[in-house]
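Title: Prediction job returns without error message
Component: structure pipeline
Severity: low
Priority: P3
Assignee: unassigned

Description:
Job completed but the reporter wants confirmation the result is attached to the right record. Sequence as submitted:
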Amino acid sequence: MKSIKTTWIIFSILSGVVACSHPKVIGVYFDYFSEKIELRADSTFSHTYRFDLASSWTDGTWSIQNDTIYLSTKLVLDTLRIPVTRSKILKDTLVLSQDKNVDRIGFNEYLV
């Protein structure tokens, strides 16, 4: 879903800006739907969305090729520990993190 959202951001927020050179594209962009994207000079970006009780974030890198800005997200993954009993672990699996910190989490911390 984040890639669909990223595609929409490119279209809605940055339309009309892509023909400019890099220094003119660098900056912070807002829309009327509580979204913000910051394009930094070091070719990284940060996207946030906040509305009511819902929120999301994405970090990554960006580049310009011809007249298009490409966003490449950097996934932050937590290790979800799945126990069988207190002493025996069934398996560990990677899940998308709810924050920007890499952690080892249990079921009680994992929100679906």
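Comment from assignee: result matches the submitted record. The chain has two domains: 2-73, 77-109.
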